[in-house]
Each structure stands twice: as C-alpha cells, then as structure tokens.
C-alpha cells in the first residue's frame, strides 16, 4: 500500500540516482534507502529510516527490559540522527514515555512516541496523521524531551495518561497544556518563522553541560496502592512487605488519608523507617498533593513523600529509576523524588518572586508607545524583539542581560533573521563564559542556522578552542552535519597553510587527523609536501599515520623525498621510514552526487500503529 504523504517516491529516486549515502551512519542504515516526506512548507525534506524489532511486541507485554532495549538503541545511534520517533501500542504508551523520560539523562534531541487507535492499514484510521505529525515535529524542531504525539497534540511524555479506549483523543495531560498543537499552523511559538502562540519556555531543558547518557537499569520492586474506605490493615502490611522497595500511594483529594486510622498510618511509618519509599499521589485525574489539611499532614509525618501533580505512570517510573541508582543514600533518593527531574511535576511554594511581562518596564513602556492592549500583543512584541536582544547580548558577552531576558520568558534558542541562536553568536565571538551560561540554561548544541552550520562549526571557524571544549563536553559532534570528505578538505587546507590553530580546532572537535580529502590525501601528506615542520609535528603528536598511501601509493615519507624535505623524515618515525610502499589501490570514481541531507527526523519502530494494545 503506497502512502505518498509518508514517502515521496520521486525525490527518493532522485537521491538514488545521485548515489546519496548516509556516510557517517552504521552499515545497517547505509544499506537501506531512506524514506522521504514530501517537501514541507518550511522548505525541508525529512529523511527517515526504520529499525524494526523482531518479534514486534504487543504493548501489553512491555516490561522494563524492553524499555532498556529501546533506550540502549537510541543511545547507540544518538549521534547520527536529529530525532527519534517510536511507534508503540497505546495501552502502555504513557508508561513507556514516562520511563524513557527518566532513563534518558541530559537529552538534547526530540524523542517522540506515537501510535494509533485504528490500524494504519484501514481506510479510516488515525495512524497516518499521528505518524506524519510526529515525523514533522522530530524533523523540524529541537524539542529536547521525551514526548507523546497523539491527535494533533504533542505532550510531555511524563505528563500524559490514557483517558479513552474508543476515541481518537486517547491521551490527555491533565496538569500541563500541550507543548505543540498541529492546527492550520504548527503552534510552537516562533513568530519569526510564522509559528505563533505556544510558549517555548514550556519546553523542559536539562540545564547541564553533560553529554547524553542512559540509565537502563530500573528497579521492578515497586507497586501501586490505592486507598479506599474500609481497607484492612492486613492488606496494607502484606503489600508493604519484602521485596517491596517503593510504593505509589493513591490518596483522596489533595493527598489525604484517614487520620483516624492510626493502624494504617503506623504501617506507613514503619515501612518508611525500613527504607521503603512511599510517594503520595492523588486519585483525582487533575490537580496535585498538598499538606494543608490535617489528613494530608499525617502522611507527611509518617514519612510519605508528596508527589505534587505527578501522574501515576510518572510516579511509578520515577520510583523505579531512583531506586535503581547506584551509590545513592536513602536521604538522596527521597530528595530526588521531591525534585522536578524531567518536568514531571510542578514546583510550588518556593517563595520566588513571580516574573511576568507586566513586570518588565521596557515592555510596559513599549506597550504604551505601540498602544498594545492585550497579553497576546505583548507576547507578540516579546517574541519579535527578544531574539534580537538576546543575540546582541550574546555578541557582547553580556550574561546579565541574557539572564534578565531569559527570566522574562525569552527563549534561549531563539533565532535571528539568519537562523542564528545566541549560542551560535557567543561561539563565534569566543565568549566562553557566555557559552557556558547559555549551555547551563538549556541552549541546544544541535541547532543549525540558515547555512546549515551548528555552533560547533562556528567555534571551529573562528578557532575558539575553549568554546570547542565546552561544546564537546556537552555532546556536540561533527558526525551528523558535515561529511568526512569535507572534514578532510578542511584539515588539508589547514595543513597547507601551517594553520596549527585550525588543525587543533578540528581535532579538538573530534575530527580524525587521518581523514582523507576528495583526492584521498591526508593532512600529513599536505603538510609534508609544503614542508611545514610545525604542522607535521602537531599531526604526528595527535595520531597521524605516516604510512597511509594516496591513490598513487605515495606515503608521507615518499612525499618528503620527492619534495626534498629530508629534514621531515625523522619526524615521521622509524616505522614510516622503514615501511615499504604497497601497490596503489585502484580508486573508484568519486560520485558527483554524494551529499548529506539538510535535516532529518528518523525513527525506530517499536510496534506497527495498531488498535491500541
């Protein structure tokens, strides 16, 4: 069955004729032709590959090992793709979304779960729209969260719960509005590109400078205990007995339990004293837990941890994740459960001053001048002005202004007219302190400007070595936005000009010093040919191999002899001096059509979109 909205055959055939290759990817993806979405209104073809599990699992049979397999596979392929879509049955999709949100630490790329209520092969179904929407979002927007896309809405993954089994509106996020709404326009709040309304500051950012990693271990010794009137003490005591390590306790209203049932409260207190972690979640689908009432405070006194407005799915996943952490004290585990780790709960009562647009004197004055009369108009002005102001502050290394703008709702990844973010500009200017500040406030190292350049490419261009170190530390890499041949060309160019800082910048960013250019010559070949002693020394000190041959069988030593640069031969090592050149290998002609795609949203298939189980 052909579905042109999910695969544009003509463009795919054009790629095949041009010998398109996904050069940096593992062999599995190089051997498979990509599927291609039609050209979007934003001028992008989204290319995606499918990895299908065998056997395909019914979502009702999902367990923690399956979550670990999904997490490990995404971690394995993380550097090669811009985003991931997971096809999943609907029955346990909310559980998987919550679990993955915790297992993925320092996530910087979109991971979207989706599925369908009606199988995709039936004439009337929701699978096509759900899959298409998820692919479009993953391929166009860097929303660094585990999310769930269903019925034209993108939700935070650990905020959703399944609410209907006979409706296309199968999921809801009771305590957090959708991050993205797919209507006539895609609403994600970037007024410069015509996508209005929804605030980017709703997106949860990890605010660290650590690389992406996964925790695949989860503790299965957890359970869900729902209070009901007349519950027996024996039931509770049996439920809290070993090997139970953690419990989500579903209580009445705002987190209340009967304060007249001293036997139950004592059982909870004894279990908590034994080290069992008990998290209090309300039975109400909307709202959260507080301890204002006496019936709620008694649970807090018994050692039960308030779960705020977490869903049951999120609370169970968080318990399992925290309990599986190694070398963590009981006190630390309790604190982790109370913290907002992945946007799974709403923090209240912190005593912090509320900041809004109405508190900003500059915008208030501007509103009077422009005669703005609504909050929507104020937001529109903010979205129009803040990107320019933030980029100007980044250019000047003005962290104080950036802090004010971010506190006033500015998007740390906002783009100027050329698609450059504040991080792009700070990296170009070499403001390491500003780069560090932006990274710690959630700036993405994966965004590209209108020319397709990342902030790492800008830092390399301007030889800002301290900035490159910060970006690489945060997870930036060269693998999915520049071809190996281009890296080889840049290395050879730097070697030809004895540009040590250029060589240092590329190698510090992760470039292979032995990467050949289009003529299969390495930077060491070029440095020797030009007689640049400093470049030869630097390359040899950083892993250059002097015995590599170009298409004519010429090594760096032979190059030195041909060019009469005999003083360079000792620098190349005795191995190179003694090595006999092997016969030159016949090189296949370079394909003129080889190129990289500009932007891709790829996905892993966990389950064919099915009937919701």
Automatic annotation (TrEMBL):
Protein name: asparaginase
Annotated spans, Disordered: 580-613
TM segment ranges: none
Domain (Asparaginase/glutaminase C-terminal) ranges: 221-335
Keyword Transmembrane helix carried by entry: no
SUPFAM superfamilies: Ankyrin repeat, Glutaminase/Asparaginase
Top EC class of this enzyme: hydrolase
Stretches assigned to the L-asparaginase N-terminal domain: 52-187
Active site: 90
ANK repeat windows: 418-450, 519-551
Domain of life: Eukaryota
GO molecular function terms listed in the Swiss-Prot or TrEMBL record: asparaginase activity
Entry EC no(s): 3.5.1.1
Keyword tags: ANK repeat, Hydrolase, Repeat
Entries under Pfam families matching the protein: Ank_2 (PF12796), Asparaginase (PF00710), Asparaginase_C (PF17763)
Recorded family membership: In the N-terminal section; belongs to the asparaginase 1 family.
Entry's Gene Ontology BP terms: aspartate family amino acid metabolic process
The keyword Hydrolase is assigned to this record: yes
